[in-house]
Amino acid sequence: MILPADFEQRIGFDKIREHLKEECTSTLGQSIVDKMSFLSHFEKLQKLLLQTDEFKKIIQSGEYFPNSNYIDVSGFIKRAKITGSFFSEEEFYQLKLSLNTILECISFFDTYEEEYQELYTLRKNVALDKKLFEAIDDKIDDKGKLRNNASQELSNIRSSIFKVQAQLRSVVEKIYRQASQNGHTPEDASITIRDGRLVIPVLTEYKKRIKGFIHDQSATGQTLFIEPAEALEMNNEVRELEYKERREIVKILTALTAQVKPELDALDRAYKFLAVVDFIRAKARFSLKIDAYLPELVDKRMLVLNKAKHPLLKLSLEKQGKEVVDLSVQLNPDNRILIISGPNAGGKSVSLKTIGLLQYMLQNGLLIPAMPDSQCGIFKNLFIDIGDQQSIENDLSTYSSHLQNMKHFLDGANKQTLFLIDEFGTGTEPRFGGAIAESILEELYKAKAFGVITTHYDNIKNFAEKYPNVLNGAMKFDVKNLSPLYELEIGKPGSSFALEVAEKMGIAHAVIKSAKSKIGTERVNYDKMLNALGKEKRSLELQLKDIKGRENQLEETVKEYEELNNFLNEQKKNIIFEAKREAKAIIQEANKRIEQAVREIKESKAKKEVTQQAREQLKAFDKKVTPTKEEQESSTSRNDEFKEAKGAIQSGDFVRIKGQSAIGEVLAVGNKEAEILLGELKSKVKLNRLQRMSKSEAKKEKKKSYSASSTGMIERSTNFSQQVDVRGMRVEEAITAADRFIDDALVLGYNEVSILHGRGDGILRKVLRDYLRQYNYVKSLKNEHEERGGDGITLVTLG
What we know:
Residues 724-799 form the Smr domain. This is Endonuclease MutS2. By secondary structure, this protein is an alpha/beta fold. Among the domains are: 39-149 and 257-289, MutS, DNA mismatch repair protein, Chain A, domain 3 (Orthogonal Bundle), CATH 1.10.1420; 296-493, 3-Layer(aba) Sandwich (Rossmann fold); 560-625, no CATH class; 643-708, Roll (SH3 type barrels), CATH 2.30.30; 716-798, Ribosomal Protein S8, Chain: A, domain 1 (2-Layer Sandwich), CATH 3.30.1370.110. The protein is built from 26 helices and 24 strands. Strand 17 (663-669) and strand 18 (673-678) form a beta hairpin. The longest helix has 83 residues, at 521-603.
């Protein structure tokens, strides 16, 4: 149940419908916008929301999706039922274009069934025979005219018409040239057509000089249009052939229309499918315009909005270069009712409307401008009481109209109701209005309904203190500058700041003082206490935010330290493993040589020469595997005696951490630390722990890397293509693929490559180009030649 009857106008949803219609491509989608209604069935609503979210992803991907020729053919398609009727060439042309769009949509969903499963379910209900499109395309050309070869008879007729017309024009031109040379025709005149027949313009005074039939005269009466007698028979022949052509065209169109008749049921489903596609596409396009997302939909009564924005206010402020203040609010069984107070023009009503509009949009199958981690439940009843509802026709005052709404609210309220009431209790004498409002609120509370209320009344603000499941909220106010901040703060009531605002507006101090005395010291002190509590809470929030920031920084530092430590330990294990492996090989070789020497000595029976030779061989091997003095010194004190390159460490330098052999590349340099790349690991290290490497040493390291990967480079060079296809990829996937592709191109020495991203709405093209422009090695980005793909392909010049 939706109350009151003009709910959509009061909440602003009528404007949402207008925006959706603007996003539709045709009247097909617009007709569904008009039929869109409030839903409370969880599975059906979830399906509609998922379809919209999937279409949003299609648009964001940049993948081509048919976006034209969503034509409504309902005005003439049913004529196919009438025997002997036929569609015109223009009607068949519209049918051809729209059928092609339907077939392209079907093909898209068949291709991406796994990616867009909910949208694919729409396609499953459509069984359209492609032969009908082919039959129409075989007869109707791309200009909407019947093809010459639509039938052999038509081809012969048109060929005859062409021949006769050529002869006719030749005869008439000859007569016209002669008349023109004789001065019988007006200057700058030419052969023209009257009643479908070729005629020549002749000055009135020379009409008897040209034999023929007069068809028309000019507005001034000075020129006559005469069909020469020599052309009369040929004009008649052309006219007869044109009649014959028309009869053949009707015959062909009638036969073609008969082919449509058996497919009417399938066509009806197909065009309903096309209308739904246009509608869902409009919803997706509108969601991108208002930064809307799919929240978590839950099958229970609750509402958690994180950083929500009023969509219409957002669009309005964007035109002025401003941003709308977001709203975060939470309603659940533990906190069912929120009472918002605060100064006038502080944003209370906007907050109320935002909550109501977003819930109504969601239950109409629309994505909402709130963070994806928002949680939205389903309500069966939505009630709103907002604005001046005075009714002249029914002789109702504003307050009486409010009371009438309250009566309906109380009659229909239950635990599946969300009610929204603005300026609760106003419109009559405050004491009575406040009392009635509190009593009504008690009944709504007993009905276990959910709701949001805005008020200035203290007894309504105090309601939250007396009843569980009710929260106070306040619109923030800058006390120093006496201006609203339009931010909702949950947990405490707000002051109206009436005295402060009056003083700022220039009301005399004596008047303000008198007002304070009339209000009473206790009430004034109550407002002061609220303000003081607000200041204290904001101060504590800032301190808590600072502490959380420091905790996050500490966690990040610990994480980086652990990653660096793990990396170094892994390097250490690798070095020890390699050393052990080499040592084992040396020992095995030594044992082998010793055994060989012993065997040779035994076989020679310890001959002096052989024994001496064996000993020399062992000494030579010992010398080979024993480190030299320089190598030992280098090995034991290499870290201490490392010759550091001169100059300050800058981005792009190669460095080594003191006491370690690991070499890294400097990515960025700060005041006291630098971000370096160690293998695949990024880490921040203090500058005083780094030693700068010379370029020669860096080159040696690069050569080692190159040597190790030369085989891979040859393979990459052999298989490299100068174009990468990112169509159908998500934005993140496309960026990763393009990034890797550009890296390979640079390494392999290519100066120009291309990225195939498709046209679509141009979103993927823009994202890729914006990403590539940040790199210095990308010299230019431009569209491919139109014949080779145009703006669906980006040419990248590297250097």
